[in-house]
Amino acid sequence: MSGNALKRLGICTSDQNPIVGVLVTLTPATFLQVKKQLLPILAAAGDSGVWTTGGAGSWDPDHPYFDKGTYKIESGDVDVWLDARHLCEPLGLPVASTEKNVRATLAARMSNHFPTTQIGINVHLAVPGGYDVLVSPTGNKLP
Question: For residue 83, how many other CB atoms are within 10 A of its CB?
Fold first, then answer.
């Protein structure tokens, strides 16, 4: 869910003249919304993922230090780690499939639900946040 990766889909911050959607930062509440949207889709693909890594991962109730709280109030993306071995059978792939093939198949599956792109080994998704964002024709932020 990297901002740079989503630029190729026409999704970027409001000051970069977005074509398809505006990239916004996540809060702890929106992190939980994203997780709620993705969990059933990932589970159907064979792995619900590990959500406790990266900057936003500290907001996950499963994070070992969740109860201690965090000073982090926003994040640019969410990192979710999946085990390719768990994805093969649900994605209809042979168990001996390469990770490259698994990732490409996962990206194709996820594109049925969200704008998706793959760069290298990472699959990036744009998960709608349900925000209305004002963007001026020149891409400048409005008050």
Answer: 12
Q: Residue 47's closest CA among 3, 110, 101?
A: 110
For 98, phi then psi, to 5°, come to: -75, 155
How many CA atoms lie less than 13 Å away from 85 in the CB half-sphere? Answer: 0
Q: Which of 59, 9, 65 is nearest to 34 (CA)?
A: 59
Does residue 18 contact residue 12 with C-beta atoms inside 8 Å? yes
Rounded to 5°, angle at Cα 29 from 26 and 34: 65
Interatomic CA distance for residues 111 and 47, integer angstroms: 17
Cβ atoms 5, 117 nearer than 8 A: yes
Q: Which has the closest alpha carbon to 53: 43, 61, 63?
A: 63
pLDDT digits (tens, 9 = 90+) for 39-81: 999 999 999 999 999 889 999 999 998 888 888 888 888 999 9
CA 128 – CA 117 distance, rounded (Å): 15
Cα–Cα distance measured from residue 143 to residue 134, given in angstroms and rounded to the nearest whole number: 9
Total-model pTM: 0.82
